[in-house]
TrEMBL record, chain A:
Protein name in the entry: Sulfur relay protein DsrC
Active site as annotated: 104
GO CC annotations, alphabetized: cytoplasm
InterPro entries per UniProt: DsrC-like_C (IPR042072), DsrC-like_dom_sf (IPR025526), DsrC-like_N (IPR043163), DsrC/TusE (IPR007453)
Family: Belongs to the DsrC/TusE family.
Gene3D superfamilies named among the record's database cross-references: 3.30.1420.10, DsrC-like protein, C-terminal domain (1.10.10.370)
Membrane-crossing residue ranges in chain numbering: none
Alphabetically ordered keywords of this record: Cytoplasm
Cytoplasm recorded as keyword: yes
Cell division in keyword set: no
Principal localisation: cytoplasm
Pfam family, one: DsrC
Compartment annotation: Cytoplasm
Automatic annotation (TrEMBL), chain B:
Protein name: NADH dehydrogenase
InterPro entries found in the cross-reference section: DsrE2-like, DsrEFH-like
Residue ranges of the TM segments: 21-48, 68-86
Keywords: Membrane, Transmembrane, Transmembrane helix
Pfam family, one: DrsE_2
Signal peptide: none
Gene3D superfamilies documented for this protein: DsrEFH-like (3.40.1260.10)
Positions in coiled-coil regions: none
């Protein structure tokens, strides 16, 4: 675990750059993390995904699957891949200040 | 891992039509897309059942000649045993949020994975494009398959 500066905040991250303390997360940090994974701007559609992931983790203690993001979160899989190309769940989780997905699905 | 060491593209061949033979290929294909890896899936022989409209809803676990299942072959051959084993396995998968095959095919397609049927098998089984689900990207030859697989790994299941 190392300390890192993101959008003028000092946060703790693991070796893959995921926040290790979700309480350190805020929207400015999210914008900085998004840039790290190649997403220049977070639109309303991006925030909808991020907020859904955070809500799910809070309520169920784990990240939803892409299927659940579609069925419960109402975000079609195609759109999810357009919003967060090349690894949507991992990227969205990172931006949301959550841990890396630990599921094969 | 440096970016240039990462797998960028894979092509998966699914050649068998039982539930336990189709799912691993689909899970690997979907997992690849989730990891940002380009994916082609090539369905051949009975593996094509996974993308055939009339068959894809009715894929079963093989209960005969499947020693790992722990059911004696004589029992596995009894009517209804395969249906029962299939039902049990589907329930387990639903708990893990693994979708049924038709939905999984749609999911991989929506994730940008490409799905192809094998021309030789299509001709042998006397099938047409309309016999396949809409998500299928094409019916191609083995040569075409090697062409589209260029620059990536090939996995045969």
């Amino acid at each position: 675990m190392t300390e890192k500066m993101l959008a003028d905040f000092t946060v703790n991250v693991n070796e893959e750059g995921y926040l290790t303390d979700p309480s350190q997360w805020n929207k400015e940090i999210a914008v900085a993390l998004a840039k790290e994974v190649g997403i220049e701007e977070l639109t309303e559609a991006h925030w909808k995904v991020i907020e859904f992931l955070q809500k799910e983790v809070k309520e169920n203690g784990k990240l939803p699957t892409i299927r659940r993001i579609n069925k419960v979160g109402g975000i079609p899989t195609k759109e999810l891949y357009q919003l967060f190309p090349d690894g949507p769940l991992a990227k969205a989780a990172k931006i949301a200040g959550l841990s890396k997905p630990a599921s094969c699905i | 891992m440096a970016d240039n060491e990462k797998i960028k593209k894979i092509s998966i061949v699914i050649s068998k039509g039982s539930l336990e033979a189709i799912y691993p290929g689909l899970i690997m294909a979907n997992g690849a897309r989730m990891a940002g890896i380009e994916v082609n899936v090539f369905f051949t022989f009975f593996g094509m059942d996974a993308v055939t409209k009339k068959k894809m809803n009715n894929i079963k676990v093989a209960t005969v000649g499947n020693p790992a299942l722990g059911i004696p072959t004589m029992i596995g051959a009894l009517p209804g045993i395969s249906a029962l084993a299939t039902k049990m396995m589907k329930k387990q998968m639903e708990e893990l949020d693994i979708p049924p095959i038709p939905e999984f095919i749609e999911m991989i397609h929506d994730a940008g994975g490409k799905l192809y049927a094998c021309l030789a098998t299509v001709e042998m089984f006397k099938l047409k494009r309309e016999d396949f689900c809409d998500e299928l990207d094409g019916i191609i030859t083995v040569g075409d398959f090697y062409d589209i697989s260029t620059g990536g790994q090939i996995i045969f299941t």
